[in-house]
Design a protein that fits this description.
The structure holds three protein chains of three kinds. Chain A has ten helices and no strands. Chain A is an all-alpha fold. In chain C, 31% of the residues lie in helices and 23% in strands. Classes of the chains: A mainly alpha, B mainly alpha, C alpha/beta.
Chain lengths: 218, 242, 213
């Protein structure tokens, strides 16, 4: 399992691995929104939590189809399925690798983009906390979506259609944490709910994703 | 005789061929009685005027939009646990019907909301939930149509339906949390205080029965079509092999 | 540690292609599967490896005993030869010594630091087959292992198989060419084809055929 994690991380950072593309996309969203909405500080400050969360979510979505599609094409997934590594574990590890190369950098970069969007002072802490808690859920839900479409030739667009509705609760609670945090309100409730969704998704979705992969391999 | 015998395509085709005309007749009867009664023989609401009468389409459609998904969930579980092909095809057949009910609920809601709230659309929790439900239906249908092998498609959509159900419920609560809206409470709760008055209530119940029957009829018809399509595919495959 | 198959039927795309298949593969033995394209060799091997369900019949295999080599080698072009192999060694829990041995045995030592993207087709194939050596598993299930190998490499690989058999391993090989393994038994799959005459029976599992309007 550690070997799988190390391999996925190594593949991600080598040329052609697409590391940093999600981050660049996130930056672009944060730059394009003020260009579209206008430079008024109060408007931007008000929409900043939502924009940052939606941007992070879309950036996450971009790289999802790489989780399994490449391994499916070159036959590694077949070989993994016949190896001693349980498919559930492989899914969990691959989701973790996806989070390390996508979710974690997004979380760390978000405060900088918050500055561009005039995010109010108390919001920064909660922005980082909510993304740190929420992006693992985005990765594992995305891994489930990627597992569903792994056998399809052009699964990318279909996967967005499948995954985005599943992202709704995470987005709502995540953005709510930042919104409340930025307004200086109490954040415990949405934060607990966000953590609950992440914990539930991490615990259960690898099983659903592994089942989907086995179906797709046969 | 076990209930699972109906999961055999042949038995299902026989039984449904017998049941379909009755279901169709009952649908037509209930819907015409309920809708005519509701539209022409109930008084206007003292506050809402004649616009209230859209309730006879809006509420049953909204109920069936959710019930159709529940039926798909049950059918998917039966397929995954017991591998009955008819069950998977019934889930497939129900999805577009459920999507249509969802769209009817959304459109009639907009038509009702305009005179009532002065807006076609509001990010009210219930409206938003239905919009999200609509997305779930679209994803489910898209996955069915994208996967070529019918059993693979049935398995994948089954898993999606189960996971989607959990997330649909989560979304419902998340949306409630996100915005406490302007929608009135349930029109049909057992709690008498919240209930709409009797004059509206009886035709509404008839309409709901009509929509349930309509759903059953449509799903039976569509399942029969799906079974025939599978049969054609199987026969063609045998032909090619021979 | 033997692989036993009884009355096995396998299907591809919902259509039964082979039926009534039975054989036993004892330790130290090799079995070569023959038959024309499309007879169902790959389907059979995938079924044996548990990648797809059997239509009916029994497969008795040693638990976690099968090592599968498919048409695709499962190589990552951005990793070098040693990294590719070391990954599978770690997955199968065999370690770096096994990697070095496998590289040596498959004549890949001089290429160890080269990226898989820059290997020739035959070299890639050799690397794919080297994975069998690091898997440490007794039963090798090989699907057309000699594709794109030159004569020398085929002989090299036949030697590797012979060593494996000598150490009590076994091999199930679907191939069209002669590997030069004289001791291998040959099983022709053609008689097990789900034949046109027996088709109605082969379709017995499909609930959508049979008489109904």
């Amino acid at each position: 399992m550690i070997a799988l994690l190390a391999r996925d991380l190594r593949l991600a950072v080598r040329a052609g691995g697409g590391f940093g593309l999600g981050l660049a996309f996130f930056l672009l969203v944060a730059v394009l929104v003020p260009l579209g909405v206008g430079p008024q500080g109060d408007t931007l400050a008000r929409i900043a939590p939502g924009i940052l969360w939606v941007g992070a979510l879309l950036a996450c979505l971009l790289s999802l189809d790489r989780i399994f599609a490449l391994d499916f094409e070159d036959g590694s997934l077949d070989l993994l399925a016949t190896s001693p590594v349980p498919m559930e574990g492989a899914v969990a590890v691959k989701a973790l690798a996806h989070w390390l190369v996508t979710g974690l950098p997004l979380t760390l970069a978000a405060p900088v983009l918050g500055v561009l969007l005039y995010l109010p002072g108390p919001g920064y802490l909660w922005l980082v906390v909510s993304l740190a808690l929420g992006t693992p859920a985005l990765s594992v839900i995305g891994a489930f979506g990627a597992a569903l479409v792994v056998g399809l030739k052009r699964g990318g667009l279909l996967m967005s259609l499948l995954v985005l509705p599943l992202y709704v609760p995470t987005l709502i609670f995540g953005a709510e944490v930042v919104k409340r945090g930025a307004a200086g309100m109490e954040v415990a409730t949405p934060l607990a709910l966000l953590a609950g969704i992440t914990a539930g998704a991490l615990a259960l979705l690898p099983f659903a994703a592994a089942a989907a992969i086995r179906v797709n391999l046969r | 005789m076990s209930i699972w015998e109906y999961a055999n395509p042949k038995k299902f085709m026989q039984t449904s061929a017998w049941a379909l005309p009755w279901a169709l007749a009952a649908t037509v009867l209930c819907l015409s009685v309920g809708l005519i009664w509701g539209f022409f023989f109930t008084p206007d609401d003292y506050k809402q005027g004649a616009t209230v009468k859209i309730i006879y389409l809006h509420v049953p459609a909204a109920m069936m939009a959710i019930n159709a998904w529940v039926m798909m969930l049950v059918a998917s579980l039966i397929w995954i646990v017991r591998r009955h092909h008819v069950s998977a095809l019934a889930a497939k057949a129900a999805a577009p019907v459920g999507l249509t009910f969802t769209l009817i609920a959304l459109v009639t809601g907009a038509l009702w909301g305009q005179p009532m709230w002065g807006t076609w659309w509001a990010w009210d929790p219930r409206l938003t939930s239905f919009l999200i439900l609509c997305l779930f239906y679209m994803g489910y249908i898209a996955l069915w149509s994208a996967v070529e092998d019918p059993d693979t498609a049935a398995d994948l959509t089954g898993v999606l339906c189960i996971v989607g159900s959990v997330f649909a419920v989560l979304s419902r609560y998340a949306v409630n949390f996100w915005n406490q809206g302007l929608h009135q409470g349930a029109s049909l709760s057992m709690d008498a205080k919240e209930n709409v008055s009797d004059v509206f209530w009886i035709p509404l119940v008839i309409c709901i029965a009509g929509f349930i029957l309509l759903f059953v009829t449509l799903v039976l018809m569509r399942t029969r079509t799906e079974i025939r399509a599978r049969r054609v595919a199987a026969l063609l495959a045998r032909e090619r092999l021979a | 540690m033997e692989l036993t198959v009884r009355n096995l039927s396998v299907a591809r795309g919902g259509i039964t292609v082979l039926e009534g298949l039975g054989f036993t593969l004892a330790p130290g033995r090799a079995l070569v599967l023959r038959g024309p394209n499309g007879v169902g060799k790959t389907t059979l091997l995938r079924t044996l490896c548990g990648l797809q369900p059997a239509v009916r019949g029994e497969i008795a295999a040693p638990p976690e005993g099968l090592a599968y080599a498919s048409h695709a080698d499962g190589l990552k072009s951005m990793l070098d030869v040693r990294e590719n192999l070391a990954f599978w060694a770690a997955v199968f829990g065999t370690g770096p010594a096994a990697v070095a041995r496998a590289l040596e045995r498959m004549n890949l030592s001089t290429l160890a630091a080269r990226r898989a993207a820059n290997l020739s087709a035959g070299q890639k194939r050799r690397l794919g087959l080297a994975r069998l050596l690091v898997s440490g598993r007794p039963v090798w299930v090989l699907d057309e292992p000699t594709v794109s190998l030159d004569t020398a490499s085929v002989a090299l690989f036949a030697g590797v198989i012979r060593d494996h058999l000598g150490q009590g391993g076994s091999a199930l090989i679907a191939t069209h060419i002669d590997l030069g393994l004289d001791e291998a038994e040959i099983l022709d799959l053609t008689p097990f084809r789900a034949a046109t005459g027996a088709l109605a029976q082969a379709w017995g599992d499909d609930p959508f055929l049979g008489d109904f309007a």
